[in-house]
Amino acid sequence: MPYTTYNMTPILQNNAVGSQFQPKVTSKCVNVQGGTTGSCVNTPTTISPLTTGAVSNIPVVLAELTIQINVDSLINLPEPALEIKRIKKHVKVTQCLLLQDTNVLFVKGFIRKNIEYATRKCSNKTGVCGDIRHCTVDVPFSCTTPITFNGIAPLPPVPRTSTEFQYLRQQNISGPGFADKDRLLSGDLSEFNQISTEYFNQLPFCELISARIVEFDETINPTRPHGVTLPFEEREFKCIQQKAVIFLTLKLLQKRQVAIGAISPFPPKPPHCTF
Prior knowledge:
Shape: extended
Radius of gyration: 40 Å
Distance between the termini: 109 Å
Mean pLDDT: 86
Order of helices and strands: HEEEEEEEEEEEE
Low-confidence stretches: none
Strand content: over 45%
Structural class: mainly beta
């Protein structure tokens, strides 16, 4: 079979040192070195407060309370597990709404649970080996609770108003039973006049102070897989039953106009002594 002879001279010349065909090496764009020092020096300055009094629109505390929420749920893992290694929990509140004129607080949220568990990859009568997996789930909760305003009662909502009015209209009338000088005095039915007023009330809102969870997790229906050799005490499961009691401490607030009284001005700063 004939073969083709290649001339390697141009290729060797292009790869030679200093050749314009030599591949270019891309360098880094920027390099920054440095940081902050251990401490900074500061000098206190005179505070100039408002001393004549003022009216401020700030949140005021309506109530502070601790709610007990009972949760019962089932969690199904995506695969069989041998044991639970660790569970990390965080409470997330998605709704905290005061229904005014009823003093009922609606609370809704979920528990974010990160479950770490051990799985079986190989086993015999003396041991089990496998991987550590994790599964993150959101366990929802919701409840309603009556509120005792141990701070200050909220402002009642001001309803919107709508008022209709009309103008006088004078019309000549004629016909049987009417004199020539008779006139119809009435409102004008060909127009509609109205004054509407909307009041934008401040909705009470919540702040989450603390959350405490007392929890009991139990595996459901642990079994020994058929045809699998395991140590005598080992079982596998996929379902976890959670019983938890959540204690939520909430602060209920509403923006109100608060009068701040006048205060005495600060004494002048004494002069520095020189020796």
